[in-house]
Structure formats: C-alpha cells, structure tokens
Design a protein that fits this description.
- By secondary structure, the chain is α+β, with helices and mostly antiparallel strands.
- The protein has 2 domains: 2-40; 52-136, Alpha-Beta Plaits (2-Layer Sandwich), CATH 3.30.70.
- It is 32% helix and 22% strand.
- It contains 5 helices and 6 strands.
- The protein has helices at 2-10, 16-23, 27-40, 77-84, 110-121; strands at 60-68, 89-94, 101-107, 127-134, 140-141, 144-145.
- The strands form 2 sheets. It has a 4-stranded antiparallel β-sheet. A two-stranded antiparallel ribbon has the order 5-6.
- Helix 2 packs across helix 3.
- The longest helix has 14 residues, at 27-40.
- It is globular.
C-alpha cells in the first residue's frame, strides 16, 4: 500500500497499467487497490501541483499562524472546520509548538489576504492572535521541485 501511495503522490496521472508494472502486480489488482483506498478515504482526491508564478505574477501565498482558545466540547475541530469552509483557504493544520493552527491562503495580492485575515480569521471569537507570513518563493511542493536549476559554465548549480 505504501509503495502505491508513493507512486500516486509523485504522479497520479499514471494509468493502472503503468502503476502495475512499477509494483509487479496486474492492472486489475492495482485498480482494485486504488478503488479500495478511495472508498476507505485514504485517497481523498487528486490534484495538480501548479506553479502560480508561471501564469500569475500577482498571486500571493500566505501561511497564517493562529493562536486559538479550544472550545469546551470540540477542542480545535469546530474552529478548524469553520476556517476550512472559507474558499480562500487551501489548507488548515493543527500544530504543536508556539501556535495552534496553520492556515494556507492564496489571494490576488497582499491587501486581499490582509482583509481576509482581518475580516474573517481575526473575527472568530476563539482566535487570540494571528501572524501572517507571505511566501516569497516556493522551491518544492508535494515532493515536486518547482525551480529550474540554472548551471553556470563551470557546471555549478544555482
């Protein structure tokens, strides 16, 4: 199962036949295993890793740290579900350490993200504080390197 998941993480567009060759199984066995993983909720969906800067220079990705007060009955789950319901939000993660929840948001510009933080996140009663970090450059995402290494005349990679 782990090998199948690793293959799908790297390229979910491979056919069952191609994956079967890589795993030493039949295409039918591979397809059945994928369907089982989907049914069990292990595989939640398929996505493309997109380099936003390749088509939209103004797009901004922000990582927002939230310190929150857990709710008496649901802990962090209700707060996280509320945040996850916003269209701008790409991911919500419960964290250990100096803050509680990490939110990933993409917007058209810094002002749009700032308004989202002020009007949506900071307005949630349980939110004690927010810290917003704007991503300047992404080098690797979901195991895929997003930069093209440039070599100089000596073969050095920059």
């Amino acid at each position: 199962m782990q090998k199948l998941l690793q293959i799908l993480r790297k390229n979910a567009r491979l056919s069952a036949e191609e994956i079967a060759v890589m795993m030493g199984t039949t295409p039918e066995e591979t397809e059945a295993k994928i369907q089982e993983l989907e049914r069990k909720g292990v595989i939640r969906g398929y996505t493309a890793v997109i380099d936003d800067t390749a088509f939209d220079d103004d797009s901004v990705l922000a990582l927002i740290e939230l310190r929150v007060t857990p709710q008496s009955q649901s802990g962090f789950d209700e707060i996280a579900a509320t945040i996850a319901s916003y269209d701008e939000v790409e991911s919500v993660r419960l964290m250990s350490g100096g803050y509680d929840i990490l939110v990933s948001v993409t917007g058209k510009n810094i002002r749009e993200i700032s308004q989202f933080v002020n009007q949506r996140l900071a307005a949630i009663d349980a939110v004690q504080s927010t810290t917003t970090h704007f991503v300047l450059k992404s080098y690797k995402e979901n195991g895929i390197i997003k930069t093209d290494a440039e070599k100089d005349e000596r073969g050095m990679i920059f």
